[in-house]
Amino acid sequence: MLLKFAFQDFLDDRQFKNTTKINIRNYQTLLGEFVNYCIENEVINVEDITYAHVRQYLLECLERGNKAGTINTKLLRIRAFLNYMVECEVIKNNPAKRVKKQKEDVKIDVFNDEQIRQMLNFYRRIKQREKSYFAYRDYLMIVTILGTGIRRGEIINLKWTDIDFVNQTISVFGKSRRKETIPITDKLSKELSAYQIFCKQYWKDLNDYVFVKRDNSQLTENAIMLVFKYLSQKMNFKDIRVSAHTFRHTFCHRLAMSGMSAFAIQKLMRHQNIAVTMRYVAMWGNELREQNNKYNPLNTLDV
């Protein structure tokens, strides 16, 4: 089967299975790159792809500066595509199965208190000086992620009807396309309520979506990426990425550092597998040890 037709057939199948737009776009980009590599190397049929082709492609990606995490993501996309070809009986075995994943660094960056204060104060200053809706919007996005740990896509799709101010909860559609309810603090509830009043006054016609663009339409993935890119340039933090995911990691980090149980963290982060949660808790184990040594009640007791 011609590789370019097989690739399109695979994308159609993902769409049929209601895969998210973000994942389909990732397949188009990451898997498309591999398909182009094969065709450029005169591998035009799926049946001709070998272990060596997959391995050599990933080695070249490594030489171009791709990190271990990116390499592993590309490998997973290739495996998924070739597994589909096995299901369709185009090939008998998946040649990418024998390709081993790269070992990844387990360090995950989080913001410290000073960095968070700097970012929030930056937006406060702009809002006071320019009375800008966009400064208020971006400020509230950060506060909402820090207070709930919700994902970038969930921020984009958040509607006013998803916020229950009485019971202080937010409803989102998570990765599994399942509606999930997240508790919010009284502080965040008041912040969102004040923002809603501001939006009504600013736009006159309140949009269904909480965070909108300049034309009062739903925020897009590209627009939110530009927000964090702009903030990153203004802050110029060293060795830490300013992104929605870093704010989500910071939320998780603070929960772990507070002594919250892994089970409770899993529920708030909405990890499908507690092993993911345990990886975070284990990662910050040294910090927990330091905090325990510093604040343990036995330190002040004569025993």
TrEMBL record:
CDD domains membership: DNA_BRE_C
A single MF term (Gene Ontology): DNA binding
Top-rank lineage group of the source organism: Bacteria
Pfam families: Phage_int_SAM_1 (PF02899), Phage_integrase (PF00589)
UniProt KW keywords: DNA integration, DNA recombination, DNA-binding
Domain Core-binding (CB): 1-86
InterPro entries for this protein: CB, DNA_brk_join_enz, Integrase-like_cat_sf, Integrase_catalytic, Integrase_recombinase_N, Integrase_SAM-like_N, Tyrosine_recombinase_XerCD
All copies of domain Tyr recombinase, residue ranges: 106-293
GO biological process, one term: DNA recombination
Family to which the UniProt record says this protein belongs: Belongs to the 'phage' integrase family.
Protein name (record): Tyrosine recombinase XerC
Organism annotation: Gottfriedia solisilvae
Lineage: Bacteria, Bacillati, Bacillota, Bacilli, Bacillales
Gene name tied to this protein: xerC
